[in-house]
Amino acid sequence: MKVITVFLALILGLFSIYPAVTHAAPKFHDVDPKKYGWAMNSISCMVDKGVASGYPDGRFQPERLVDKAEMTVMVYSLFDQYRPYKPNQKTDYSNYHIELFSDVPKNHWAYKEINSIVTRDWWNAVSYTPAGYKFYPDAKLNRIGTANVLPVFMLDR
After folding, report:
1. What are residue 134's DSSP bridge partners?
2. Of 39, 77, 102, 118, which sits most exposed with the smallest number of CB within 10 A?
3. H helices within 31-136, ranges in order?
4. Using one digit for the tens of pLDDT, what is the confidence trace for 7-47?
């Protein structure tokens, strides 16, 4: 599926943050310009802004489903207003001693981003179980899942 590229194109299209000018896309050996020409500007924008970087082996994996943790990190990276501090202000995250979600431990790779912008009352992104609140950071998002979770990031603030 083209969920990650569709997600990137959706964000950029909705917020018109990148002009519709053709730019040279980064060279990812799995992004064929003939097949993904429609997404090249979005990929370039996201790489330029540091929101997406691809993988160390030179792949972008445009067919791979994005998971909730990855989407949270992309939103965190792209939209400064969702961060708990002002841009260009150094913040010490060592005081994050309370784990909001039982399935996102402090050593999770996206712990800072998830605990910075996700709240427990996001009914379509967070679940309450007897073990506590769960975010399910590794849950893969298809188009419907992305459409259900994305407005939470945009409208909750």
Report:
1. 127
2. 102
3. 33-36, 40-48, 68-78, 111-117
4. 555 555 544 444 444 445 557 889 998 999 898 888 888 88
